[in-house]
Give the backbone structure.
Amino acid sequence: MPDFSHCLRKAFTNDLYGKLVKGNSINLVGPRFNGRLRLLEDLAQLARQDGNTAVVVDMNHWKTDYEGFVNHAQEQVLLAAPASVPEEASRALVPAEHLSKALSAQLPHHQRIILLLNNFDAILDNPQRRFPKTFFDDLNSLRHKSNLSLCAVTQKSHLQSTIYYKEETEFKNTLSWLELEIVELARPTLSEVREELNRRLQEVSHWREEPEKERFVVAVQDHTAFYRFMEIVCNSFGMNHQQISAEMRLQQCYMSFEKNYRRAPENPWPGMLSKGQKIVDYWVGVIERIGNILKP
């Protein structure tokens, strides 16, 4: 039985891991800055404890390189092969034409392979990101292969996305042909945030001495980008050794988030000034023409 003590979202991670062990194909949907990668890392650690092999891939790194992606996934599987497996049987890369074939070739040496694809939407909704159609067909075929599981992470359901593939044909369908179970990323509970902050900051004296810890717990749990905000809070306690009030520290953390992660609204003034200038130029031209007509 795997140990879930390292997990941030314990109950949610337990449920999701159970689905993957059963062989489900999952589309995990959740916004950025909310611990999506942390969840995949927690799942990978559970898999290792359970004797399974987890492959974590950030699709942002491979969105223009399908062969590189397949080889990267294969290399992770090869490195995880048990030491008892003969090297010649487990160390050879399969030509990177079909992901399913590459992974299936290694299945005899692994109890289960769980493919965890972060930022899967990096290859969706963009005609410049063209993976071959066989890749998407392969993802569907994984759900029918014994001991192979998939979790693809996106900001919105893949059903709302357009897939462009390498054969220069646009496949446009709100009901994507990918057969993935939609799972919404759960927000952590107050107790889970509290435990995580205490674990991260247990060696920091300012945190141990902070009389208003619960204000930070509530602020983190309530934040729309809670995981990134939690990192800012932890950095504040770890790096700012001044004795400051909880109110001031929180304000500094909010300001840091706004400065570094909140996209500034576009400045409307350049466009407005441009339009105003065109109007002025138009009427100046009209007045000049009238003046020319009235000249004796």
Summary: The mean pLDDT is 84. The radius of gyration is 26 Å. The first strand starts at residue 25 and ends at 29. The chain is about 50% helix and 10% strand.
